[in-house]
Amino acid sequence: MISVKKWVLVVSLLVSVSLLLSNPIPARLNMRNGDIIECSVTMDRISFISDYGEFQMPMEFVKAIVFPTSGTIITSLKTIYKNEIFRGFLLEEYILADFEGIPMKFHKDTISWVELLVEDRDLEGGVVQVMLKTGEQFYAAMLSEGLNIQTSYGVFSLSMDNVALMEFEGEGNVLTKTTLLSGSEMRGIVQDDFIVVKLLSGTELSIAPGKIKTIDFSTIELAEAPEIKEIPDFLPGEEKKAEIPHNMVLVEKGTFYMGDLWTSGNSSGKPTFEVTFDYDYFIGKYEVTFEEYDEFFIHGGRQKPSDNGWGRASRPVINVSWWDAITYCNWLSTKEDLPVAYDDEGNFLDKDGNITTDPSMVMGYRLATEAEWEYAARGGKNNDSFMYSGSEEVDEVAWYGSNSENKTQPVGKKKPNSLGIYDMSGNVEEWCSDCYGLYTSSEKINPFANSGSARVSRGGSWSSNAAYSRVACRDFYSPTVTVNCLGFRIARTVP
Questions:
Q1: How far apart are CA 368 and CA 274, in angstroms?
Q2: What interhelical angle do 322-335 and 290-298 show, nearest 10?
Q3: How far is CA 299 from CA 155, 333, 367, in A?
Q4: Which of 5, 177, 276, 429 has the most beta carbons within 10 angstroms of its beta carbon?
Q5: Rounded Cα gap, residues 192 and 170, in angstroms
């Protein structure tokens, strides 16, 4: 149970803040054209969508709003509490303000950042500090009374009142190292789906443990923050980290053995060989859906593909060729002001529009290379040893011939792998950028095969048997083929 002392401190903080005046707040709008507009913000709150939930933030808590720059899609929100920062999508299209006595609406696309000319606030303790793996951090009351931890010596019900620090690793089966107030340390797998906290602004959030880096339960004493002169889109003292695009996950560089590590399976997955990536990349959390692809169609894309009568919406798009898939990637890049990844011949392009065979030089949205696909399916640096992406049990992670009802299923309904990626085994086979060719045993760095006529597909589908859903299994098709078991997911090199 949360102690009475903690609750009193938290409630007093919330009540004191709620008594702030609701008058327009003096602000400075830094516009993209270089203008600086002194005004008063008149809106009382903003709505924010993050990876850990949707919430509203009263403007009286806001210190700054940093809007996306070219090549990014994430808005940063800083509050009146030092170093508190949230990242996500701002739902409001306009900032409402009073300028020289005239009500004005400033579209968010015209603004670089907004400074609210308000005083910073200090914390008095009684709250925890939550740090996320994306670099966000904030303070909150802990509403979860405890966690269930699977340790090597059994399931342990951990009371939050006894915790000093929690450190989380992984996305799926989340490992935590917990330091208790007594000094004891214990490690185990978190059994709970969410940890519930209450922000100082009053919003309750349910956060998946896999998104958390640390929770610090120690008393927090903060000095007054210095006056902001220039607002970066990252925390002071931190290196700038690449913002993870919506519905994508970060795959960090590393080394793995590619190919069929088991004695059975497709001979095309042998021999195994060592692959090293010297760059990070993003990959889609889900296969591209009909909902996403239909937006492309509406805005001048290729012929609208059939759904075979199974439904569209969140089902993975099917009946698309390799050429359709890369055209979608180029359209998405253009939509987000990124350099396109492919030329008219299907070659990779670098940021300057030059042909390249190095995927690390491609800045636009693209299909994953075959090696990138398998590395992500195996959990990247986690080096998962599972036969399927996220499990040894195919039914846990894959829609395939024995459980699919002979059709595709909505994405994200099965268990993800350790990186939080869904459906890399089963549902639909996925186009890769590479041409198909036989493996050799030589070590490779950033491999990409651009010689050949057929293109690689990976992951198995709703119509295939379990063996085709293995992370090492390969297939290939002519790039012009459109079939109801073949779709794609997007990837992108981290700038």
A1: 18
A2: 70
A3: 53, 14, 21
A4: 429
A5: 14
- Residue 102: CB partners within 8 Å, gap ≥ 6? none
| Separation of alpha carbons 163 and 182, rounded Å | 9
- Altogether, the residues listed in the chain come to a count of 495
Model confidence pLDDT, tens digit, residues 200-243: 888 889 998 888 989 998 754 433 333 333 444 444 444 445 67
Name the DSSP class of 468: G
State both tokens at 299: 């805005």
> Could you give the C-alpha distances from 400 to 387, 428, 441, 476, in angstroms and in order?
15, 9, 31, 18
Domains of the chain: 4-116 (no CATH), 128-216 (no CATH), 248-493 (3.90.1580.10)
Q: Which residues contact 16 (CB under 8 A, 6 or more apart)?
A: none
Q: Is 17 exposed, middle or buried (0-12, 13-18, 19+ CB in 10 A)?
A: middle
Region for 43 from its dihedrals, namely left if φ exceeds 0, alpha if ψ lies in -120 to 50, beta otherwise: beta
d(CA 31, CA 430): 42
Token output for 110: 């015209």
- Encoded tokens for 108: 């968010």
Which two tokens mark 30? 């830094």
Q: Write down the H helix ranges in 336-453.
A: 370-377, 394-397
The CA–CA distances, whole Å, from 78 to 35, 67, 87, 316, 426 equal: 22, 11, 9, 36, 41
Which residues partner with 366 through β-bridges?
A: 491
- Where would I find the beta strands (DSSP E) of 263-313? 273-276, 281-284
- For 367-422, the pLDDT digits (tens) are 999 999 999 999 999 888 899 999 999 999 999 999 999 999 999 999 999 999 99
